[in-house]
Amino acid sequence: MESSSPDLEAILLVGGQGTRLRPLTLGTPKPLLPTAGVPFLAHQLAKARAYGVRRIVFATSYRASMFEPVFGDGSDFGLELVYITEETPLGTGGAIRNAGRALTCGPDDPVLVLNGDILSGHDIGAQVRLHLDRSAAVTLHLTEVDDPSRFGCVPTDDSGRVTAFLEKTPNPVTNRINAGCYVFTRSVIDSIPAGQVVSVERETFPGLIAEDRPVLAYIDRTYWLDVGTPAAYVQGSRDLVLGRLASPAMPGSPGEYLALPGAMVSPEAKVHGGTAVGARSVVEAGAGVVGSVLLDDCVIEAGATVVDSVIGNGARVCPGAVVRDAVIGDRAVVGPGNELQAGIRIWPGVELGECAVRYSSDI
Ligand code: GDD
Ligand code: MG
Fold first, then answer.
1. Is the CB of 98 under 6 A from ligand 1?
2. Contact 144, 176 (CB under 8 A)
3. For 252-285, how does the pLDDT look when each residue is reduced to its tens digit (9 = 90+)?
């Protein structure tokens, strides 16, 4: 059951460069990438609002000026949004401290802090309640993954207290990881050193644990995804379109595909698996598109196949081409008969001639 906490303030960390998502993030910061038809952050904003958040401070850095034109003062979302920009990136902890200047709540109040690239089905209200009931300094949402070495590994004791925070350790001691959603007591944010680069994962959390401050775990294994890689970004969009994760920000009902205004999908094309078809994009007869993100104004021509991939704005996939697990940059052209797969990334504007790349075993 969802439960809300009245008038909570939040900080959203949105200043990272999104390097693992290049070339998609060369021009657009990760939190603004279209995901199931809306900028990624719209899903996080809608979820936070549903749990009683009314005011959100965006901690921006990379391409900072691009956020406000999209979300404005937040009134369209029933929120008050404030934008705070770091002149040079301050790291996660430094960004939280810097954004904390714009909070209005008192020193003992809880503040929600979110990584800006997370889709999660967990109950934020229950996490806040645990934090308040146990008078914690910080309460971390933890989830479980198969490969914890790519995340913050977080062991706990029997009472639910966090006993260590091991960021990206090659030898994880548990599958439990930091899921990137924290409740901080406001005074703890104010105690992070100001005006310097600080990692909340490598400095602030280990420091609080060493001082024996109450750092608690809110463990929840419902839907969770960090969309920071191309495969995960495509998966997140796909899961939202299919309705595997409900989001109040979805611009349509769940289904095999979502078509944005002006999109044209031929009745003789096969489009399914949670594909998002961007505004004015065209999928021609005989083309097949599965579980992919087609951004705006792109064309999948007759007989082309696109699987688990991102096709950039204005890009074109020509007849007979096969694109699998790939990222095709804006305005790029995949010429006829190419076979692209296994994590290939085509940079914006690149034009691959006919049959320039093939993976067939018969050549
Ligand atoms: N404002 C600002 N300034 N934001 C930043 C900065 C900065 O200098 N550096 C990173 N961020 C933001 C990113 O935009 C992102 O929303 C968030 O902080 C986390 O950064 P990522 O680059 O996505 O980190 P990660 O995915 O490798 O690891 C983090 O998330 C994992 C869960 O997905 C860590 O918090 C891990 O411990 C955690 O397991
Ligand atoms: Mg991340």
1. no
2. yes
3. 899 999 999 999 999 999 999 999 999 999 999 9
Cβ distance 223 to 120 under 8 Å?
Answer: yes
Instruction: Say which CATH class 8-226 falls into.
Output: alpha beta
CB distance 283 to 266 below 8 Å: yes
Look up residue 147 and give its two tokens.
């490969």
Domain residue extents for the chain: 8-226, 256-352
Asked if residue 112 lies in contact with residue 8, where contact means CB atoms within 8 angstroms, the answer is: yes
Q: Which of 41, 117, 192, 203 to mutate to test the pocket of ligand 1 (most atoms within 8 A of CB)?
A: 117
> What is the rounded distance in angstroms from the CA atom of residue 200 to the CA atom of residue 184?
11
**Which residue's CA is the closest to the ligand 1 atom numbered 10?**
16
Give the DSSP letter string of 164-184.
--EET-SS-S-SEEEEEEEEE
What's the token pair of residue 50? Answer: 């549903």
Which residue's CA is the nearest one to ligand 1's atom 8?
A: 91
Q: Tell me which residue of 13, 79, 15 sits closest to 51, measured CA to CA.
A: 79
Three-class SS state of 144:
strand
Whole-model pTM: value is 0.95
Best CATH choice for the domain 256-352 from the list 3.60.21.10, 3.20.20.140, 2.160.10.10, 3.40.50.80: 2.160.10.10
